[in-house]
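Entries read chain and fold; for instance:
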Amino acid sequence: MSQRSQASKLQATSLLQEADPITVPCLTREALAVRTALVEKGLETPMVDNGLTRDQKVERIEGLMTRVAETLGLDLADDSLTETPNRIARMYVDEVFSGLDYTQFPKITQIENKMGVEEMIKVRDISVISTCEHHFVTIDGRARVAYMPKDKVIGLSKINRIVRFFARRPQVQERLTHQILVALQTLLEVEDVAVHIDATHYCVKARGVQDADSQTETIALGGRFKTNTEYRREFMG
């Protein structure tokens, strides 16, 4: 193992050991460790803590969406539209942008690798539904994620949940891909992680150039996936 890989592993271990859930109420140690790692690497989503509760966010967004609808000339007295501002507000806070709230980070149980599994673990065709942060329209695609286990493993569904957590934000695909990579490296305390996303961007498909067929692929590689051609080939196969 290279000195750089050793340093990265030690840093990930340190983040998990030192993260104190008491310093930020309701956050798990794992959520804090992942967020800290992303901030240190400059990969965190641009966001600030505005101190608003869930209900305050819904109320504020509902008011703003009411103004947007009225500005567009929509009749909010119509029974089809009356609840639309509230529906949008709840959708933003509770669903499509819920990944901005680290209290919603999935519960992750790290399991000792008692079987000594060393071979690649790969999950394919993970659904990715996100939102373009430039136009707030849908990103729709699939992800594949792999890692080479060492001392710890996690349940397979946790990989899907981590992908979904980071997808539920205003995103750019490049950042999303690397956020998933760093989150898994931190939680698994291993560098050997690979993430690939193939997605349709509706800011390209439904507006602007209106190209209905183009796909965007991004890939993030760590450890042996970056240096070993055979591992990369197996990952993409």
In short: The chain has two domains: 54-100, 109-236. The CA atoms of residues 22 and 179 lie 24 Å apart. Residues 54-71 form the longest helix (18 residues). Residues 1-10, 19-23 have pLDDT under 50 and may be disordered.
